[in-house]
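Quick log. Single chain, no ligands specified.
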Amino acid sequence: MVNTLSGGEQQRVSLARAILKPGHLVLADEPTGALDPQHAEVAFQEIKRLQTEYGKTIIMVTHNIKEARQADRVIELKNQMTVN
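-> predicted structure:
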């Protein structure tokens, strides 16, 4: 049952579902936010694999600077305005 899973477990299940679903677009809101650093890195590498191996477009919201720096394009918001 979903309600017995921790937040991190729920995020990993959601990532697996995104990989398996057909379609070209994945919207990810803080996909690694509830994960410990080791699991977060594994999940982020899987998100990158979605893009390269499956040709999916990933739109991800994150506060993780390390993850953002690995993106092809970053749109930064400050005070409800785009910075770049």
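The mean pLDDT is 84.
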